[in-house]
Amino acid sequence: MRRLLLLGMACVALAGCETTRVSPDQARQVSAEDVYAFGRPSGPEYARIVFTQDAGAMSCFGAGMQVFLNDRLAAETSSGKSVKLYHKPGLVQLSIKNNALCAGGDLRGLLLDLKPGYSYSVRGYRGTWDKAEPLLASPEPFKYTK
Prior knowledge:
Immunoglobulin-like
């Protein structure tokens, strides 16, 4: 009975671990080696997507996430880190998934309608059963200068 209780508590702890939101301004930047595509704008009309992964060592033991734009791997993040990606205006599918160190590796995404020269803030957090979830976050999209 005691083993069953301990096993149950461990499952609840792993399934219910919360992450902590990190402001993109306070987050550490992803290293250049972990940005594979969309790391530079090709023109002034390109929209910027600032993806920030929540912090939380208990959630998937602090494992990172992979960020995809239109099914192309753009970057890999880790706990409390942020990456700036650039894409031409129009519809873009932003998807994320846990890296290989964490269960729940299926892609989860959202569709963004990017406006020329606007910046979008997207939060990556872990929801139920530690599945990676993207969320359009504050601030609202705004015109950026650099």
